[in-house]
Amino acid sequence: MRRIINYAPRPGVRLILALLPFVAVLAIYILASNARLAVEPADKLMPSFASFWTTMVRMATTIDRATSQYLLWWDTWLSLQRLFLGLGISAVLGLVLGIIVGFVPYLRATFEPFFAAFSLIPPLAVLPILFILFGLGEASKIVLIVFGIAPFIIRDVMLRVAAIPAEQIIKAQTLGASTWQMIAGVVLPQVMPRLIDSVRLSLGAAWLFVIAAEAITSEGGLGYRIFLVRRYLAMDVILPYVIWITLLAFLMDYALRRLAVAAYPWDQIKAA
Amino acid sequence: MTTIRFENVWKEYDERVVLEQVNLSLADHEFLVIIGPSGVGKTTLLRMLLSQEQPTRGRILLDGEPIATEPTADRGVVFQRYSVFPHRTVLGNVMMGPQWAGAPFLGRFFGARRRALEERAMALLTRVGLGEHAHKYPAQLSGGMQQRLALAQALIMKPKVLLLDEPFGALDPGTRRSMHELVGELWEENRMTIVMVTHDLPEAFLLGTRVIAVDKRRNDPQAPERFGATIVSDFEAKCRSVRESRAFEAERERVRLALLAGPSPAVDAPAVPAFETALVKD
After folding, report:
1. Which of B84, B97, B104 lies closest to A178 in CB terms?
2. Which distant-in-sequence residues (6+ apart) come within 8 Å of A104 by Cβ?
3. CB contacts, 8 Å: B139 with chain A
4. Which value does ipTM take for this structure?
5. Smallest CA–CA separation between A260 and chain B, in Å?
6. pLDDT reading at A83 higher than 70
7. Has domain A54-271 been given CATH number 1.10.3720.10?
């Protein structure tokens, strides 16, 4: 009998094991849902998969009278727009500030403690301030995402800049590089893979802020819809929406991972 | 012609004296090797020559001028590790210096200029034995090959002085031997000055024309940081006149063979008088 850590599953077994929890959760839901529906056919808490399907088909293919839009697609469009704007602005800010502040010692001494303190402010606590300053429109939602994510990305990029061996920077100087040339030719390319990783890690937080902002005030959006239909206990909308959001987040994460592999092959070689 | 002078150089960190009274003058085309126990300040000496650190007192002159207070292109360097850029291919690494010098904003050449530089870089890579690895990334190379790359990268800038900080410290003995050969040959071919730090004595005497030992001359057991290290011995490992007469003989032999082979002595002729005058001066 070896120690348990020395038993590793074969690839085929690994796939089955990975699927197992998903199948188990589905099975438990179906069993529980069936049991409840057998007692009360109009049960709202655990609708059957058939009612999920009909509700989603309705939301995706019929025009809603109040908004005259296809609700599912409209909500998705609004949320993704907010998410991408917020993430994009955060990534650009993180890259520019992270590199400049991380690379220039005087700026680093000035701003590093400030960023450290700034990143500890709970973004949701300042949401009211954002609403007061930027109104209830799109601006305050995007600022909330940036407020929540940019400090993390800035600090992550700064750490990566600091982790570049001093030998490389000295070497670049003996090859005649100016500060700008070192930023563009040595620091930026080595920070990019880490930026992609740090955006991937921020995806969860970004969704949190999108949904939180939409829940409070919005005209539409995935989070808005979930919180709106909560009043009618419409689990047949909420659960598929949650799965849809999860799927979108997974696809974004996957796309970013593929991007890192395709754009920075040297980083993969180093990791291997 | 490159000369280096250390004039009464001291290095102190607060109360701790690392180096004291370092005086050294180095003639052209020397291979200086600095040896000494670990942690005594060999690398600090090299770093001051590189301007990675500043002397607390005294000054360092390169060709009679004080060196710049930051690393510049006149002093190339190869560290024990991390002196190549992991995000560029081998060829890209070698091409970085000239591209930085020639394209201040983009740091990249295009068209004919790029092709000319590529040719030059490939020639250099072939010289150091990396010709067929030009399109790999440094992480795909062995430790020895990475050091060859770092050498090529530094040499393409034609530095006056090449600084080597324990460049072979992380290599296995076989690789180390072939690197010794390469560095010796490159030193002859480029007629530059090399300053190398090592703690391997046989290596020091194999490569160096001049070997200096750095150690503490005085020690106070009550205050071990009171006194710094300095140059305690200075060996002329390969006598300059012997070196040059050997080079002279080799050159004369080459010219003699060329004369025997065919009538094209005009190109080689000036080499002989140049060495003759050098010998007479010594």
Report:
1. B104
2. A179
3. 266, 269-270
4. 0.82
5. 13
6. yes
7. yes
- Among B87, B89, B116, which Cα is nearest to B102's? B116
With CA atoms as reference, the chain A residue closest to B70 would be A173
- Let me know how long chain A is: 272
Q: Provide the 3-class DSSP secondary structure of residue A108.
A: helix
Give the pair of three-digit tokens for residue B281.
Answer: 């001066």
DSSP letter for each residue of B176-232 = HHHHHHHHHHHHHHHT-EEEEE-S-HHHHHHH-SEEEEEEES---TT-TTSS-EEEE
Residues 159-198 of A with CB under 8 A from B: 165, 167-168, 170-178, 180-181, 184-186, 189-190
pLDDT reported for residue B276: 45
Cα atoms found within 13 Å of the Cα of residue A9, Cβ hemisphere only: 8
> By the CB < 8 Å criterion, does B105 face chain A?
yes
B42 near A CB under 8 A: no
Q: Is residue B246 packed enough to be buried (19+ CB in 10 Å), middle (13-18) or exposed (0-12)?
A: exposed
Cβ distance B137 to A171 less than 8 Å, yes or no, reads: no
Angle (CA) A98-A103-A107 rounded to 5° is: 80
Q: What is the dihedral of CA A15, A16, A19, A21, to 10 degrees?
A: -130
Q: Are B196 and B164 in contact (CB under 8 A)?
A: yes
Structure tokens at A210: 């999108």
- Out of A185-199, A224-238, B217-231, B244-258, the most confident range is A185-199
Domains of chain A, by residue range, sit at: 9-46, 54-271
Reading the block at residue A125, the tokens are 């606590």
> A237-250 pLDDT, tens per residue?
899 999 999 999 99
What are residue B164's DSSP bridge partners? Answer: B78, B196
Q: Do B100 and A175 touch (CB under 8 A)?
A: yes
CB contacts of A265 in chain B (<8 Å) are 137
Residue A42 identity (one-letter amino acid): A
Sequence-distant (≥ 6) Cβ neighbours of residue A132 within 8 angstroms:
none
Backbone angles phi, psi at B54, to 5 degrees: -105, 140
Token pair 């700034």 is at which residue?
Answer: A118
Q: How far is B68 from chain A (nearest CA, A)?
A: 11
